[in-house]
Amino acid sequence: MAAYIQYALWEDLPPEVRSVIAAFTGKGLAAGKSLYELYFYGYNIPHEVGHILRTVAGTRTEQQWEEEMSANRFAVAFWRARGAVVLLRQLEEILTSCLSRMVDPCPPGMDRAGYFNQHYQELIDPPSYGHYQFNMVLEALAHPMSFEQALQTLFNHSSSRPAHLPPLGDPLITPDLPAQTLLELGAVLDASGLPLPEVAMQRLYTPAIQRVVGQA
């Protein structure tokens, strides 16, 4: 069965969803659009691929905190190896700014990972889940892995063919970037001896915004 990465363009979002994202920034719809495009057109496609690879490699667990952190570590490792310096710097800056306005859903004194694992289904509203994900991205940025380390640590993959990402620098953040990134990742992983299963992009708005569907 083929897997799909469902995604939506900013224009596909209902007005109320755009308003929620804009509220994260505190700077209106234009800033919300910039956050959305940076995060979902750019950063997050390798995150979703990380979930797919964890399933294929048999390293996926029932602990949602570990899975989301693993996907974020892979995404950061990919973009660092690709040389996307500006993308990652802008991402860090905007997420840090957003978190300064967002309410932390984890009660004081509670273990963040444990609370996330125990209350995952209760934390799927955009402000709560966004707060957790933004923190996870910043954690991955603060403690980055090399791309080789990510393949070995997250997917138990080692190869005599070292992964090589050409230092392409920063991508243009456009609606075409998700599909381009998926193709680029597929080629790099195949060359590293960790072929990506059949995955396609599917443009479709869902409340999840972006997710993997159809993977056995």
Please sum up the structure shown.
With 216 residues, the protein is mainly alpha-helical. Helix content is 56%, strand content 6%. It has one domain (14-159, 167-197).
How would you sum up this structure, described in words?
Helix 1 (15-25) crosses helix 2, helix 2 (29-57) crosses helix 3 and helix 4 (85-99) packs across helix 6 (126-142). With 216 residues, this protein is mainly α. The chain has a three-stranded mixed beta sheet with strand order 2-1-3. The protein has helices at 15-25, 29-57, 64-82, 85-99, 112-118, 126-142, 147-155, 177-191, and strands at residues 3-7, 199-203, 211-213. The mean pLDDT is 94. The chain has one domain (14-159, 167-197). The longest helix is centred in the first third of the chain and has 29 residues, at 29-57. It is globular.
Provide the descriptors you would attach to this structure in a database record.
single chain, 56% helix, mainly alpha, 216 residues, three-stranded mixed beta sheet
